């Protein structure tokens, strides 16, 4: 029954117990646990960001792509009819703020005559809408 060797750092500490002096080998368990905790948290955060990006893409495809196009170019029949701007164009992106884009997603957009040209997103949380704005920002080339 051999013992496996660990590559973890080991501390040697002299211990005095009454009349007996001995040497105890202590694995630096706190350091190992901290590293495992940090690694676990990092993996969870990465998974959450990936899920968020996936959710944003799915939400975009369900609610926005019909008019704005799969890549945000506004090159669909409906997008061309409505004069949708090309969100891959840096000049177009510079023409609006994240707050304005969020408001458009949340409240919808009306033309100067008060006619709705973009419906408000339904069933999405504020975080979902912020993720959509971030996704649209990523279309810029």
Describe, in plain words, how this protein is organized in 3D:
- The protein has about 140 residues and is an alpha+beta fold.
- It has six helices and four strands.
- The chain is elongated and about 70 Å long.
- Strands 1-2 form a two-stranded antiparallel ribbon. A two-stranded antiparallel ribbon has the order 3-4.
- The chain has one domain (about 10-135): Cytochrome Bc1 Complex, Chain D, domain 2 (Orthogonal Bundle), CATH 1.10.760.
List descriptors.
single chain, 141 residues, alpha+beta, Cytochrome Bc1 Complex, Chain D, domain 2, two-stranded antiparallel ribbon, elongated
What's the gyration radius in Å? 28 Å
Topology as a string of helices (H) and strands (E):
EEHHHHHEEH
Strand content: 5-15%
Low-confidence stretches: 20-26
| DSSP strand count | 4
CA distance, first residue to last residue = 62 Å
Computed structural class: alpha+beta
CATH topology: Cytochrome Bc1 Complex, Chain D, domain 2
Helix content: 40-55%
Summed over residues and divided by their number, the pLDDT gives a mean of 79
Major beta sheet summary: 2 strands, antiparallel
Tell me the CATH architecture: Orthogonal Bundle
Per DSSP, the total helix count is: 6
Lateral arrangement of strands in the main beta sheet: 1-2
The CATH class name reads Mainly Alpha
Briefly, what is this?
By secondary structure, the protein is α+β, with helices and mostly antiparallel strands. It has helices at residues 29-63, 65-68, 77-82, 90-94, 98-107, 126-137, and strands at residues 10-17, 20-27, 109-110, 116-118.
